[in-house]
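Below is how a single chain appears once it has passed through the pipeline. First comes the sequence as given, then the structure the pipeline wrote out for it. We keep one example in the README because the format questions we get most often are answered faster by looking than by reading.
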Amino acid sequence: MEQVIDVAVVGGGPTGLLLACELALASVKVRVFERREEPVRESRALTMHPRSLEVLALRGLESRALERGRPLPTGHFGLLDTRLDFSGLDTTFRYTLFLPQAITEALLAEHARKLGVDLLRGHVVEALSQDEEGVELTGSAQGARFRCRARYVVGADGARSAVRQLAGIGFPGTETTRTSMLGDVTLEHPPATPFLALTNARGNAVLVPLGNGMHRAIVTDAEREHTPLREPLSLDELRASLTRVAGSDFGMREPRWLSRFGDESRLAEHYRQERVFLAGDAAHMHYPAGGQGLNVGLQDAMNLGWKLAAVLREGAQETLLDTYHQERHPVGRALLSNTQAQSALMGFTPEVLALRELMNGLLRLPAVNRQLAEQLGGLDVAYPQAPVPAPASGVLPGWTGRRLPDWTLRLADGDPCSLYAALHAGRWLWLHTRHAAAPASGWEPMPGWKPRLEVLTLEAFADTSPLHGVDGLLVRPDGHVAWAWAAVR
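Resulting structure:
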């Protein structure tokens, strides 16, 4: 008899691996199919943003990333000269972490193996069909055919997603209008500043140190911006363009990776089609402004993971899975708007250069700078519609869907407790003071749904506490509030 697994994840990058870890944490049988036979050496993404670090911290995974990465206290919006300041953000992680994608992927793969995730490399999915009971995948692996049946399938297989295409999910958007160049190279005469970014009438250029003597050079050359993506990039072309824009090639040599990329932007029409889901770049494709793609993908995975686990292991109704599209599709739409705005600011016409000067001034206003820093860092995302019914009375407005930072809580016995530490097991969390009773044994947010739940009794909150006036707080496994409640005294 054919074995049916719970979830098949297609794509073994950071998004697919984090999703697999979330599912395995809840004892969901998950298998990952990755077309590459070996882990990737190149790192398209280089930074992890504050919310992504919070996502890791929600499961106790942040320490390894922090050991391998380098904190950067500022970020950029559209390569503007005025930097985004992360120092005042409401998070433990007031910085972006310079951490190449290859390292992020390796750390998540190691954690997935510890959780017993079945990661199959060299497996190419070629066909997909679904019915009322599940999804069947077929494909090839090292010249042999394979077949897998799963109750659900998640496509985390990148912007050219086979799962999305096989499922017939539309991917509307805009075609490439401008291309840029990328090279991981050795610089014999690197710039004096560690991070070089400049824009002028000839184009823009960014130089970022990667370590081990390597730099990443990203160049958009006004004379070469309409070069087709399919045209291979040579070291000579990259060197000439960098010289034209920056006045020097900084002794560029020994390329390890050369690539050309464009500003094509697309958003999947649906993140869910019956038993098939999309996450990460399979759901949203955009110009890589601000390094947001990997980060939004990790946050997609965190949102979808606990919902699939609730349906498969806790008896939640399948309607819960509809909230994945309802909550994450608007985030994808905002991502495209954000990156398109940045792409426009990275132009070279006199009008755009004038706009850049205006924006440089606006970013010196603390409120404007903070708003864009929160957007880039993923800290502004909220889900105002609760996925579980709230009590008939006592619910406090303004709390539902809020993202919670890692507050230090004071338990009723006086001991301190980290909020995120209480969420490491991926369970729901009910925080309550003595004024509000804990949920009764066998609490069900919906009939038949018996969620995994942690309960903590806290001391009454002082006037200075962010929880002042709150007696009960139901926190989702992804660190967002389901609802807050005040007892009648």
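Residues 408-485 form a domain with the Glutaredoxin fold (CATH 3.40.30.120).

See the next section for the split statistics.
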